[in-house]
Amino acid sequence: MAAAASEPATTRPVRVWMDGCFDMVHFGHANALRQAKKMGDVLVVGVHSDDAISKYKGPPVWTEQERYKMIRAIKWVDEVVEDAPYFPTPEQLDKYGCDFCVHGDDISTTVNGEDCYSTLKNGGRYRTCSRTQGISTTDLVGRMLLMTRDHHLDNTNGAIDNQEFAELHEKCPWTGVSQFIASTQKILEFSSGIERKPNDKAVYIPGSFDLFHCGHLDFLERVRQEGDYVIIGLHGDAVVNWYKGCNHPIMNIHERVLTLLACKYVSEVVIDAPYKITEEMMEQLSIDMVCHGKPGSPVPPCKDGGDPYAVPKALGKFKLLDSGNDLTTTILIDRIIRNRISYRTRNQRKESRELEMYKEVYGE
After folding, report:
1. Residues 39, 23: Cα–Cα separation, whole Å
2. Number of other CB atoms surrounding residue 331 within 10 Å
């Protein structure tokens, strides 16, 4: 009688740990999480509390509850650990069954220059991923402090006076200018690759989605209840500037595309979508429903004075939705402006440390 074939050995899923502040969650954070997920099977993300960030780094822009929620919505994240310790240890990784920790290839230190990951590095449980160049929370805060027209020109209609603008540029000349270089490869990496099924109900949402935040997220979560396939019609920079004013958008269209693609509720993004929704557009994208924010929220008319939603309304394919969250991009910017001294100090301190580390590495 032939011997029974041996049972194949079961392989335990590789659990990866990544932690951070994740303040003003952007596509740079999402890209780090995407890379970390590729190194294993399950991605566990530890998010630091407001108290920890304030102690070791400076005041966060977003509250801890906002940051917890935003990280849970990123499509590569499997689990979130709230109030994660600022200095991860082997014991912390063991507690959540994680094999190793992943962090960006930039040096992570506290305000006092302490290496947050020294223990894990010494124990061989540390991996690195590539940092996304051209984007950081520090950079975004700097753009809001400068409030330039398009973050490439000088300040002509800013929210701060010319003297303060000059001082900021003198101390951190790159801050306030988008340095991100877009590529089709990066879009492909962020795209889900999931095709729309024949019976999927497609819901179309136009907008700027600047500084993607919990207000946007709650709205998209509400929209997802209306259909199976959520299409974002992302307005171009010039269009957003036209209907929102001279300080917007803070993030350019390429940055906004990637941030949206990282959200688990978003199926597809139409880049530089037209402001007015036409019948041809409805047919081409096979749109079943067009949604807009809660009743009473302003909708600027088209340049010809018409209603941008006239067509879907006439077709009976328009719906107003209330997410119950009043947070807006303007409110976020106001947080920065009201506390500009604290955030300027935090930015300048971080930029000074980064410059010192750069000189140590490159000898310049």
Report:
1. 24
2. 11
Phi, psi of 79 (to 5 degrees): -140, 150
Q: What is the pLDDT of residues 112-167, one digit of tens each?
A: 666 788 889 989 999 999 888 888 888 888 888 776 444 433 333 343 344 444 44
For residue 108, the 8-state DSSP code is -
Q: Is-contact 321 222, C-beta < 8 A?
A: yes
Determine how β-strand 42-47 pairs with β-strand 100-104.
unpaired
pLDDT in tens, 263-312: 999 999 999 999 999 999 999 999 999 999 986 677 899 999 999 999 99
Those residues whose C-beta lies under 8 Å from the C-beta of residue 75, and which sit 6 or more positions away, are 192, 262, 263, 264
**3-state DSSP call for residue 100?**
strand
DSSP for residue 165? H
SS3 (DSSP) at 147: coil
Q: Is the peptide bond before 249 cis (omega within 30 degrees of 0)?
A: yes
Cβ-based neighbours of 133, under 8 Å, separated by 6 or more = 179, 180, 181
Strand blocks (E) in the chain? 15-20, 42-47, 79-82, 100-104, 126-129, 202-207, 229-234, 268-271, 289-292, 318-320
Residue 164 CA to residue 330 CA, distance in Å, equals 21
DSSP assignment of 32-95: HHHHHHHTSSEEEEEE--HHHHHHHT---SS-HHHHHHHHHTBTT--EEEET--SS--HHHHHH
Question: Does the predicted TM-score (pTM) go above 0.90?
Answer: no
